[in-house]
Structure formats: structure tokens, C-alpha cells
Amino acid sequence: MRQINCVIQKTWYNIHSEKRCKGSVTLSKIRFFALGGLGENGKNMYAIEADSQIFILDAGIKYPSAELYGVDEIIPDYKILIRAKDRIRGIFLSHAHEDHISALPHILRDLNVPVYATNFTMQIVNDMLKDEGYDLETLTLNTISQNSIIKFGNVRVTFFNTTHSIPESIGIAVHTVDGVIVYTSDFTFDQSGDAMYQTDFRKINELSEKNVLALLTESLGSTLELNGGVSNNLNHRLNSIFTNADGRIIVSLFSSDLRKIQRIIDISLAHHKKIAIIGRRAQRIVDIAIQNGYLNIPAESLINLRYIDEKNKNDGSDVVALVTGNRHEPFFMLQRMCKKADRLIHIEETDTVILMTPPVPGTEKMAARTMDILYRSDAQVKVVDKRLLTSAHATAEEIKMMINLLKPKFIIPTIGEYRHQFGVKKLAQEIGYKEDNVFLLDNGDVLTFDDKEAYVSRNDINVGEILIDGTAVGDVNDFVMKDRELLAEDGALLLVAHVSPKTKQIIGEVKIVTKGFVYVQESEEILNKVKETFLEVSKKHLEGKYINWNDFKRDVRNEVNRFIYQETRRSPITIPVIISTEG
Q1: Distance CA 182, CA 159 (A)
Q2: 184 and 243 housed in the same domain
């Protein structure tokens, strides 16, 4: 037998074209890595490299926590993939939630590669890309179904329907010569839903017969031990609230949770209510869902609210208003309604408000504030137990069931913080898996499958985050965030002076402007001392033949900062504005 020596390349982006030989078949190593989604909630973006081809699974965002001032969203740092662009076969999307698809508008500007998604997911993607100004004719957007089989040389990609809170969610299977790598994405085994939301167990069983090499399972619900009945309990709770409500009913919902929106619609219809949907983003998703048959709302039951005026109050007792949005938006709108600042609804004591939006990371303070404002409004506030709202993610028993169905050799927990990933590891060990067969990875680690063995290269890929502020991509870095943090904590101080380079004198009065630092009228003494500090520094720089303006400003900033910190123990952003003036 003729042997071919194989060279292992350590640098990922030259990526890894080495071959190994078994019999007459030449096989490539298989690698898995994540640019986001491991050890965090959101920003899901995973990659499988097989037969020197790269398959990207999902491309989502993460919302910022409170300390990231002004940042709108966070996406994975995908720039490492640009070097391997020619070998990327596509981005395969599992479902239409933002933490799985919303990085696409940013990524496709640099990586115009094919995108594959089910019909509903693709409709949402098209809407999102149009909103970002894309010409869809320049993109390769492929609509697939669970029966699609896409071939790329020795690699095939297939799909299977899963149950989630949004229609046409799918799992993705990458078939290689060494076995199948199955990515479940978010799933549950709740069988009480509509046919559009049900898991295809036949497809999963077919996969289990094809030698599953690795299972990439979601982790978020791994610490939950709920067993069945959640859906029925939620229905019972909602029906009880509707039955006992005397006036208008206002329900807060996340706009991407179409399954719960449909549930509220069905219960509203059963109680002979009219339905109004509030929220710009939600209206677009709902419109797409109605047009494609994913939401069932009789036209005669759907109403549009008019702006409140002397004649119109939108306060009919048969109205159910769905207050929808992403992340913080439902809380913000409820606060406006309580303060009588909203144009469509003013919450009154006769209203019943149902909260079905548990706080997501970064919105905890706003959610608590909203609760406080709602209770002050004297409305009937009904908070649905979080345990009844978590059924969109696989619980401990459901994760074990997926593992037992597919019988993978290796398990890689994805989609979740480290504690969730660790929870999957414990579950796998409970059903007989050895510790060596479950890999807890971080973003940037590379897991290599070589002759059905596996090993991890830690921190093999440089990964990071790109902060999106408005339309700016990549302009917001650690230095900018540090400045914003200082501005938020200690404010800013501008020191303005006119200096004549000819006479080496300060012309006119030195002015100090503060924002968020001190109240000027009560701090004249300290501000006068700041001026004195500036004059002392100026003497040194105005004595020479020439004025080095950069050194002048730097020394002013340093000395003023040192003085202010000594006096106040605060560090405002100090900006010297020294203007060269003829005089």
C-alpha cells in the first residue's frame, strides 16, 4: 500500500488541506469551531470544515449588556473567514430568530456566499436585507425544505424539521465520509403544537442509522428539569386570566415568538375578542407570517387602532392589544402607555396587563422599572411564570432524548453559557457517555476529528466581537467604550483658550465647560484652580521659540487630570481646545 505523508498546518486560515489515506479513498480531516455562541447567550455562528470545504451554521447577533454604552448589537468577528472565502460553500440558517440570522446584513458585505434557509426564514432574511439597502439580485439566496439534499463533492447537507417558537425551524446535518455531524439548533419535543412546528422523528431516526459522528446540541435549557404539561399549564393560566378580565387586555410578547402570538390569538378568538397588534418590527413579521399562512388570524378579528383623541380612546372591553417588539421594546412601550404618552393606548385601572416577556440579558433593569410603573397604574398586572415560558428550548430530559435518538460518538454542547454547556456534559454522563467524548469548547477552539478520534486545539483561531453602533461596523473599539464609560461615570471637561503664537500670550479669558462633571455655580473654586493649573502649564510652553501644540495639549490634559483626581477622586474626560489666534 502506497502511503502519502500528511502535513498538519497549525495556522487555521491557510486552512488545512492535508489529506489522510485509508485504502483507496482519500479523506480530509474534519474540523469544528465557533466564532460565537459558546460560553454566551447569542451571537451563534459555527463552522464545519470537511473535505477542505467550509460550511457555516447560523450567523446571529447578541444584544449588549448595560455597560456597553450606545452599542446596538454585537456580531461575531467574521473577518478570519474572508481569507477562506473561496472555500465557503454557504451559510445555513436554522431558524429566523435574531440570535441566529441578524448578523447576515453585515457579513454579506464582505462574504457574498450562498445562503440556505427554509421559506419562512428566507422571507424574514429578505425583509431584513432590503431594509439594509441590499439588491437581492446580487445575492445567492436559496430556499430549502427539510427534504432538500445539497451535494458538495463528498459532502452532503440535509435537514430535518424541529419544534421551536417560530415556524419552519430545522436541524442541519453535514454528511461526511467519516460520519454525520448534526446541529440541532434550538429545539423542543413539545408535541402539542401546530403541524408547522412539529419535529420530524422519522428524519432523526434515519440520521441515527448513518453513523452520527458528532452532535451539536443546544444547551440553554440543560439546567431545566421541566417535564411535559408546560403548554397545557400555560393555556390554563391564560384562559383563567381572560375569563376574569372585565376590560381591555394588553399582552406583552416578543415579536419573533410567533408560536405564543398564535396562542394568544387563538385564546382571544375563543373569548370573542378583537385583536390589535402594536409594534413596527412585529407588524412586519406578522404580515409575512399571515401572507405565508404561518399565522391564522381571521380578517374580521384583526383591527387597527387609531390615534387617541377626544372621541376615540381605543378602550373597548373586547380589545386584546398585543404589545410586541424585540428585547427592550415591549417594556418601553408599556411604560409609555402607563405614562399616557403613547398614541394608541393609555393604560387604565380597568385594564388587565399580561407580561409574557421575561427579561433578556441587558434588559433586567428596564423590566424591573416597567413592573414598578405598571403596579402604580392600578391595572390588573398578571406576570406569567417564567417556567411556563421556557418551552422554546430543550430541557434536560429532551436533550437526553435527542442524544439517545441519534447515538452520536461525540457530543459538543453549543448555544449557551458555560454553565449550560456543563449541564449538557452532566446529562451525557448520566446516560453513559465518557468524559472524553463530550467537549466543552470556547469560541476559537478547534475540534479536529481524525480517523474518528478527536482532539482540541485551544485558542487556535483569533475570535472577537464587532460592536455595531448605529450603522457603524467596527468603528467602536475598546478605547471608545472606555471613553463612554468614563463619560457616563465622571462626565467631561472642556478647557478653551486662545493663544497667540507670535506674542506667546493667552488672549482673552480661559473658558471651562463641563458636562456631567460638576455643577458650575457651586464649584467655582475648583474650576478657578483648574484655570490656574492651565496657566502654570502654559508658561513652560510659551517660553520657547516655537510652540509644540501637541505637547502643549498633552501636558495640559495630564496636569489638569492629576489635579482634578487629587481634589475630587474623579476622572472626567478632559479635552483642551487651544486655538491659535493672531493678536
Answers
A1: 9
A2: no
Q: What letter would DSSP give residue 470?
A: T
Interval 279-288: pLDDT, tens: 866 667 888 8
Question: What's the sign of the alpha-carbon dihedral 541, 547, 548, 552?
Answer: positive
Tens-digit pLDDT profile for residues 292-315: 888 889 989 999 899 998 888 898
Q: What is the largest CA-CA distance in the chain?
A: 91
The three three-digit cell numbers of residue 539, written as one number: 508658561
d(CA 297, CA 533): 70
Give the Å distances, CA to CA, from 349 to 124, 165, 179, 188, 374.
38, 32, 61, 38, 10
Q: Which residue has the cell 439588491?
A: 135
User: Is residue 357 within 8 Å of 386, Cβ to Cβ?
Assistant: no
Between 51 and 326, where is the model more confident?
51
Distance separating alpha carbons of residues 121 and 171, to the nearest angstrom: 13
Judgement on whether residues 352 and 338 belong to the same structural domain of the protein:
yes
Nine-digit cell string for 255? 415579536
Is the same domain home to 327 and 412? Answer: no
**Does 535 lie in the same domain as 493?**
yes
Q: Are residues 306 and 437 in the same domain?
A: no
> Which cell numbers in the block locate residue 474?
467596527
- Identify the sign of the CA torsion 484, 485, 486, 489: positive
Residue in 288, 282, 280, 245 with CA at minimum distance from that of residue 261: 282
Q: Which domain holds residue 264?
A: 230-384
Q: Output the pTM of the full model.
A: 0.79
CB 481 within 8 A of CB 68: yes
